[in-house]
């Protein structure tokens, strides 16, 4: 079945905005600007960047409120019009746990991205498939088929190859091999926390009939509020061995904001990062509703290719055969896990459907109800046998 123009638009939009988000963040990490003391230094503010991302997510809630008010206004003009507002009686605190996980994982990923390649960053995020599957088995009692275990194994092999390429062929002039390895490990730890977030959403949030745009916005609100508040004590906590800001504290938000104001390129990168995450969430949710979650997984893999290609083009990384092989294996594992490639010896026998039995139709709400793919993650908990 051919995609409609709108479906093609949202699919391309998801790939473009998702790629812009990672590349804009890495672009910001490569900038330098004077701080309040007048000394030019590198922009190294992962927690401030994470707050910016949550502001972008929170904007989804603002858009939702504008939309819901517009719909109520149209209903007043046309009382016969039917609009689904979803469940509006839920407690927003349902999103507190996932938001804390999202906040922690995002902060760690921004830290890791500052020490490794944008391409490796995107590839290593595929590890969430492994961790989500393991946590789903342990805490949700979900069953993983042999085919999915094969996919997990291939993802692990791909991750190992990508990591080895960073260790053996590191050519980063700014950071040495130890820093790149540390960045890769931090990103992997972040994927464990992201997988925990997905499991929490599966257990406590899914099935509540909450519209996805609203869910993203509430997580953005909690993340923005909590991490924004934590920036205050971070301003005074010494962490010279961890942070590269002039004052040697955990996070100097004032220094970061001053740098953004002094460097138009840096400001553009930050604006691109904040805006792209909001559009990426919108396009991602739309893809899940208009097409399906598996299509979103495939598009996310295409996004990885785009980020890798751009990183090579602007010389943020060098082409490495081992990384290329690892990436192919990683994509292969993802394809197998999501049942996109038939394996006769591992596929379950087809179920025969009676001729007179009609295929059920699913609404947009049903399509998104059991989909934890609301955030920049590769969630797979709902694709079990």
Automatic annotation (TrEMBL):
Ranges where the record places region Disordered: 352-385
Keywords: Membrane, Transmembrane, Transmembrane helix
Gene3D superfamilies in the record: 1.10.3730.20
GO CC annotations, alphabetized: membrane
Listed transmembrane segments: 7-27, 47-70, 90-111, 123-140, 149-169, 181-200, 220-237, 266-285
Location of the EamA domain: 40-162
Membrane topology note: Multi-pass membrane protein
InterPro entries to which the protein is assigned, alphabetical: EamA_dom, EmrE-like, UCP036436
Superkingdom assignment: Eukaryota
Biased composition (Polar residues): 376-385
Name of the protein this chain belongs to: EamA domain-containing protein
Organism per entry: Ciona intestinalis (Transparent sea squirt)
């Amino acid at each position: 079945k051919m995609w409609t123009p709108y479906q093609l638009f949202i699919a391309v939009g998801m790939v473009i905005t998702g790629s812009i988000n990672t590349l804009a963040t890495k672009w910001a990490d490569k900038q330098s600007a004077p701080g309040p003391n007048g000394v030019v230094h590198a922009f190294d503010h992962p927690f401030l960047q994470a707050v910016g991302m949550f502001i972008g997510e929170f904007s989804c809630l603002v858009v939702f409120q504008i939309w819901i008010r517009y719909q109520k206004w149209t209903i007043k003009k046309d009382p016969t019009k039917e609009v689904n507002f979803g469940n509006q009686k839920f407690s927003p605190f349902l999103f507190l746990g996932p938001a804390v996980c999202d906040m922690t994982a995002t902060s760690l990923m921004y830290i890791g991205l500052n020490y490794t390649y944008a391409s490796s960053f995107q590839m290593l995020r595929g590890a969430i498939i492994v961790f989500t599957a393991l946590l789903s088995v342990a805490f949700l009692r979900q069953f993983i088929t042999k085919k999915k275990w094969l996919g997990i194994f291939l993802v692990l092999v791909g991750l190992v190859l990508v990591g080895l390429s960073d260790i053996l062929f590191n050519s980063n002039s700014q950071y040495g091999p130890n820093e790149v390895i540390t960045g890769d490990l931090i990103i992997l730890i972040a994927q464990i926390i992201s997988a925990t977030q997905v499991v929490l959403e599966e257990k406590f949030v899914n099935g509540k009939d909450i519209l996805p745009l609203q869910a993203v916005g509430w997580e953005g609100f909690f993340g923005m509020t909590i991490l924004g508040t934590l920036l205050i004590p971070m301003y005074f906590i010494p962490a010279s061995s961890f942070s590269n800001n002039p004052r040697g504290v955990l996070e100097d938000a004032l220094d970061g904001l001053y740098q953004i104001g002094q460097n138009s390129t840096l400001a553009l990168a930050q604006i691109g990062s904040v805006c792209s995450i909001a559009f990426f969430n919108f396009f991602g949710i739309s893809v899940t509703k208009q097409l399906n979650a598996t299509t979103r997984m495939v598009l996310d893999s295409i996004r990885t290719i785009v980020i890798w290609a751009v990183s090579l083009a602007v010389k943020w990384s060098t082409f490495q055969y081992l990384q290329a092989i690892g990436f192919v294996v990683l994509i292969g594992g993802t394809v197998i896990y999501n049942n996109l490639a038939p394996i006769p010896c591992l596929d379950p026998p087809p179920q025969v459907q009676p001729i007179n039995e009609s295929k059920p139709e699913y609404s947009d709400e049903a399509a998104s109800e059991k989909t934890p793919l609301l955030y920049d993650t590769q969630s797979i908990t709902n694709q079990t046998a």
